[in-house]
């Protein structure tokens, strides 16, 4: 049990190549979309009665299911809602993404807030994106709060980590994606920008956004218009707007 609890820490996750998935929604998606990577499922009696389909699916995939008491679950996780899973980490590469001829990719340039990173992954999944890239310096994709914030989307699409922004841009441009930087300094409006072609959106840090050097890597800098009194949108909100704008343009009924 101590080894499971330790997965809340980055060093333990990296050492063992595993991470913790907490709560019924994320665990359900892990069982359905990443059953081969699921090692153990821990569930309280109440959760077993409430979410029998999750447990049945795990057992059908010949995964280990461990009934535990409420006290044990509380020691394992404070955000479990009675059910957690231990999952092997997946390694996705830029080469894998490029080989699939992607049309829409989200690139997080050193996004450090786990809630924002998880929400960008969720928004990318919902918008039909083919992948998310978390560049070097970003929060770890298997951080517990990233996993929770992604609401299971982490298991739906490739999330590439450990690459620089320059490497990501070069690889995606080689796959014939236009590179679009989302930034308030843009002269192009997301509502009028031509977005039907395959594209990779680059989103900057929460505090500073994208640097001049990072903006220079893009083919275009695009802004989200603010018509009310809000000073700005956080990166997850801006990413959702931009990704859906591209998704809408790419899926015009014809």
Into which percent range does the helicity of residues fall? 25-40%
Q: Give me the Rg, rounded.
A: 19 Å
According to CATH, the homologous superfamily of the largest domain is SPOUT methyltransferase, trefoil knot domain
Number of domains: 2
* Major β-sheet annotation: 7 strands, parallel
Structure, explained:
By secondary structure, the chain is of the alpha/beta class. It has 2 domains: 2-88, 60s Ribosomal Protein L30, Chain: A, CATH 3.30.1330; 94-250, SPOUT methyltransferase, trefoil knot domain (Alpha/beta knot). Helix content is 40%, strand content 20%. It has 12 helices and 11 strands. It has helices at residues 2-6, 10-16, 24-33, 45-50, 52-60, 70-76, 94-99, 114-126, 144-150, 165-174, 212-216, 235-250; strands at residues 18-22, 38-43, 64-67, 83-88, 104-108, 131-135, 159-163, 178-182, 188-189, 199-203, 220-223. The chain has a 7-stranded parallel sheet. It has a 4-stranded mixed sheet with strand order 1-4-2-3. β5, α8 (114-126) and β6 (131-135) form a beta-alpha-beta unit. α8 (114-126) packs parallel to α9 and α8 runs parallel beside α12 (235-250). It is elongated.
């Amino acid at each position: 049990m101590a080894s499971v609890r330790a997965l809340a820490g980055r060093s333990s996750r990296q050492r063992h190549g595993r991470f913790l998935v907490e709560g019924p929604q994320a665990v359900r998606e892990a069982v359905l979309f990443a059953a081969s990577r699921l090692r153990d499922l821990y569930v309280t009696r109440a959760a077993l009665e409430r979410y029998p389909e999750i447990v049945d699916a795990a057992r059908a995939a010949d995964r280990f299911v461990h009934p535990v008491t409420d006290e044990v679950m509380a020691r394992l996780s404070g955000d479990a809602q009675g059910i957690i899973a231990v999952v092997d980490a997946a390694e996705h590469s830029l080469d894998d993404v490029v080989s699939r001829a992607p049309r829409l990719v989200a690139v997080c340039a050193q996004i450090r807030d786990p809630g924002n990173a998880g929400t960008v992954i969720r928004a990318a999944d919902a918008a039909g994106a083919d992948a998310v890239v978390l560049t070097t310096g970003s929060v770890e994709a298997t951080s517990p709060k990233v996993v929770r914030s992604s609401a299971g989307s982490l298991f739906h699409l490739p999330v590439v980590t450990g690459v620089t922004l320059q490497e990501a841009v070069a690889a995606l441009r080689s796959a014939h994606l236009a590179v679009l930087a989302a930034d308030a300094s843009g002269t192009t409006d997301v509502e009028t920008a031509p977005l039907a072609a395959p594209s990779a959106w680059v989103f900057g840090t929460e505090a500073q956004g994208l640097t001049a050097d990072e903006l220079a890597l893009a083919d275009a800098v695009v802004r989200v218009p603010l018509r009310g009194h809000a000073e700005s949108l956080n990166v997850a909100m801006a990413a959702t707007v931009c990704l859906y704008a591209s998704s809408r343009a790419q899926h015009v009924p014809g």
